Amino acid sequence: MADALLFDLDRTLVDIQSFTDYGSARREAAELVEGFGDVAVPATDWSADTVAAMSLLVACSGDPRWARVSAAIERHELAAVPSSAPMPGLHEAWARTADLPRAVVTLVPEEVARAALAWHGVDCAGVVVIGRRADQRPKPAPDGVLTACLALGVAPGRAVMIGDSLWDLEAAGAAGTAFVGVPTRAGSMPSDVIVALDLLAAVDLALDM
Prior knowledge:
Blueprint: E1 4-7, E2 14-15, H1 22-30, H2 48-59, H3 66-80, E3 85-86, H4 90-96, E4 102-105, H5 110-119, E5 128-130, H6 143-152, E6 159-163, H7 166-175, E7 178-181, H8 199-207
Parallel strand pairs: 1-4, 1-6, 4-5, 6-7
Antiparallel strand pairs: 2-3
């Protein structure tokens, strides 16, 4: 059995992306930086605007302007919280894992993650939340996963991450953490990845690993 569970947030626990105006967020953020071209990122079924916004954060990671770019995007993510939707099985999955060390590792800032979970009645007391921040590379880099494991006092190899995208898969793999996929679109994960139909089933698989 895993010593800890790590959860992605967006479209794993709560769907924020579908309600965020990432088109405006991307345009506002892009005005703050110049010279950052396309960067290689994992394939995903996210919207093109979402991919562009997240890719910009990856591209300018380490640049002094990164915080301003993140803040421009964050305003739109926070605005979407009241419209966001819980993923099926959220409360049952959260209750089932209450006795296990847990962390949320996400591409949105910690404030957005905590606000979204609180909006949907999820108790995050004692839960580590690692959001995007200037001092660590965002997913698909493993930084957030490693930071979460360190905060929980768990070796990465003794944790399991649950996520919806290849960004989560690559971050977990680079950290040496096991992974269970809960994709929103069938066939979006490699055939050798353990995949569940929904969040509750993913938790059951993770608890058996």
